[in-house]
Amino acid sequence: MKIYVTEDYQAMSRKAANILSAQIILKPTSVVGLATGSTPVGMYKQLVTWYEKGDLDFTAVKSVNLDEYVGLDPTHEQSYHHFMQTHLFDHVNINPANTNIPDSLAADPKAECEWYNQVIRQLGGIDIQVLGMGHNGHIGFNEPGDAFELETHVVNLTERTIQANSRFFSSPDDVPRQAMTMGIKSIMMARKILLMVSGEDKADAVMRAFTGPVTPQLPASILQLHPYVTLVGDKAALSKLMETK
Ligand code: F6R
Q1: Could you give the CA distance from residue 156 to residue 143 in angstroms, rounded to a whole number?
Q2: Which helix (H) or strand (E) holds 126?
Q3: Listed residue (81, 120, 123) closest to 103, CA to CA
Q4: Of 81, 136, 149, 240, which has the most beta carbons under 10 Å away?
Q5: 140 CA to middle of ligand 1, Å?
């Protein structure tokens, strides 16, 4: 695993954007796995800046997002469709037909997940998967205790994740209770992983994920077994991990 420790959030965002743009420049037809949440916002902003400068071209890029809430209208401010439009897709020349996110309004979310697995296969797999990480070590919406062998599937969100995400909704009651997420197996099949972490509040989870046992109780710990992980974090998030090195 390659680890980049950066001074702060901004530097983490720039480093992650460097890595993702190198991928796109070296392979313009890359299939990029994208994440939402607060962590990658600065990275997307940096990518947009480089696109506007003429340094990046998304014409042939294909994207697959990690996850989406069940039942939230794609135009809802908190839907991951809306997030991707606002932070990246609306600002770069990616072909909308080349972007993929599970359909939050699918009548049958389980069938939607099956279809999503087919989409990833037909694209030839994911070249690089961007990940953030929850305080409980979740990646995507793979919560502690979820089976490692799953591909895209429907999950019930834990109370902790509902509480954590409620900051984006008017009240915890408005947070959807289910989501569709790529499973650990889908994530592990990506050729490269780019894990981004920021903030002291993540330091404990990061340290446990990379120094403790590989266990479904801490989903990110599975990344210890992936052959090509790049961890980019600010020094606050990596403080405890680096103490062990
Ligand atoms: C987002 C996702 C989640 C987040 C995680 C961290 O697509 O799948 O696993 O990466 O919840 O969220 P933030 O970045 O808001 O701390």
Answers
A1: 9
A2: none
A3: 81
A4: 81
A5: 6
CA of 26 relative to ligand 1 center, distance in Å: 27
Confidence of residue 133 (pLDDT cuts 50, 70, 90): very high
Bridge partners for 156 per DSSP = 178
Closest atom of ligand 1 to CA, residue 138:
9
Distance 132 CA to ligand 1 centre (A): 5
For 16-58, what is each residue's pLDDT tens digit?
Answer: 999 999 999 999 999 999 999 999 999 999 999 999 999 999 9
* Active site positions, annotated: 67, 136, 138, 143
Smallest Cα–Cα separation from 81: which of 61, 105, 113, 58?
A: 105
Sign of CA dihedral 211, 205, 151, 34: negative
Q: 24: how many CB neighbours lie within 10 A of its CB?
A: 21
CB-ligand 1 contact for 134 (6 Å cutoff): yes
